[in-house]
Amino acid sequence: MADIALRLEGVSRHFGAVRAVDNLSIDIPSGSFVTLLGPSGCGKSTTLSLIAGLDRLDGGRILLGDEDITLTPPNERRMAMVFQNYALYPHLTAHDNIAFGLKLQHRPAAEIRSRVSAVAEALDIAHLMKRKPGQMSGGQQQRVALGRALVKEPLVFLLDEPFSNLDAGLRSRMRTEVKHLHLRLGTTSVFVTHDQEEAMTLSDLIAVMRDGKVVQLGTSRDIYRKPRDLYVATFVGKPKMSLVDGALERSAGEVRFVSPDLRIALGSPAALGLQDGTWPKVALGVRAEDVRLRSTGSDEQPLGSFGASVQLLEPIGSDTFVELAAGDATVVARVAPDVRLEIGEAVQATLAPGRIHLFDRERGQRIIH
Ligand SMILES: Nc1ncnc2c1ncn2[C@@H]1O[C@H](COP(=O)(O)OP(=O)(O)OP(=O)(O)O)[C@@H](O)[C@H]1O
Ligand SMILES: [Mg+2]
What we know:
Rossmann fold, 2 domains, six-stranded mixed beta sheet, five-stranded antiparallel beta sheet, 24% helix, binds magnesium ion
């Protein structure tokens, strides 16, 4: 792993009884793009403000490289922050908005000119430099806001839901642009969003947050494939992971998932990666792309298979999502758009080996490796 650029050690920030950030620790590798992902109110913005030095900690410390910056004033931290609402100066042109910080530092005029134009070039906004914010679209204003942060050549970039005011199309374009920019510049970046798709597409590492804490830190793949608990499992992924409540039955070295309406053979505990322990109730988790469908009729019952009926079809063009019912249990499967299925049709569903998820229903923890 690369050097650690930024380290939060047991950081806390409380507002009265609200533990906005609660003993949070995270290491952010140098040059990486790390996303704090979580629902509204989980403490993402507060964490970012603490990193920027815009708010004070109630406990813990923050290190930039080897240096303890817990008490360093914000303007000495060499970080640049981009906010959701851009916060551009309305009476200044795009050029002067970007140049603002450099002017404050009394940089020579020629240097300001060349740095601003380099940034404008990089963001493809050179033609907008004479316009004021009111004369630009949301996406253009957002790019100027990015430019204002970029021009400072910060050691760390902090981005707090920078695209949330943009419409869906522009949002995904800006996302791609930010990803290109990060590839080019390699500046350590901490990005905040409550949009799991945005987090998945942009990040080297995702920190899934809940109630001021990091629940899981990992690559998009880790978080998606091995969610640590039910909270992460259902927060990440679209459509949501299907969950079926039931229990595990073991006999003759085989594990079976059983619920009132389902019996699914899952193979040996070792092949399944089942942890040691007993759980009175479990939840079986299934992602739509891990379910294969075929017509009933064959007597063969491969591992992971169960009978179900088609309850709903949702074509989205590239794929079709199929809601399956097995008694009270509902599982969503993804099939190719040309697969012909009828509502009410009986099918055999098979869960891809090695791709299922099992959680302890009571504590919510993942119980397979
Ligand atoms: N200045 C403040 N005074 C009191 N409570 C605050 C203050 N700032 C934040 N909080 C509370 O701290 C918690 C975390 O807030 P924060 O803004 O960090 O959440 P967030 O994850 O950024 O949410 P969102 O996605 O809605 O922006 C919330 O419960 C919020 O109400
Ligand atoms: Mg916020």
